[in-house]
Specification:
single chain, about 120 residues, alpha/beta, 3-stranded parallel beta sheet, two-stranded antiparallel ribbon, 3 helices, about 20% strand, globular
């Protein structure tokens, strides 16, 4: 905690002239909210920094990993549009998804293997 993880991501995005949005994660984030956030990031090409990512419940992280995999596959395939959460959306290749974690604290979940 307090080592500058989030600030490092923000500074790198600024150096690359890319917008970075920081999201404080917690139990209130469900897979629908995460899908909306990812959809916005994908369509704008902005970076998202998900602070304290391992505070999200493990059952939500499981769905989030599938959402991220869908985005990664579209990027790897060089697509300009793809279907995400049932909607066809534009894909800006500058999107970035970054997470910060402070493992070992009470209330933190282990990341599922497919997110490591």
């Amino acid at each position: 905690a307090g080592t500058g993880k989030t600030e490092t991501v923000k500074d790198l995005s600024k150096a690359m002239a890319l917008q970075c949005k920081v999201f404080c994660c917690g139990e209130g984030l469900d897979f629908k909210a995460m899908g909306s956030i990812f959809s916005g990031l994908v369509q704008t090409g902005a970076w998202g920094c998900f602070d304290e990512f391992n505070r999200i419940p493990v059952e939500v992280l499981s769905v989030v990993s599938a959402q991220i995999k869908t985005i990664q596959t579209a990027l790897a395939d060089g697509l300009k549009r793809f279907t995400f959460e049932g909607r066809e959306i534009n894909l800006m290749s500058t999107i970035g998804i970054f997470i910060t974690m402070n493992p070992g604290y009470a209330g933190r979940t282990e990341l599922p293997d497919n997110l490591k």
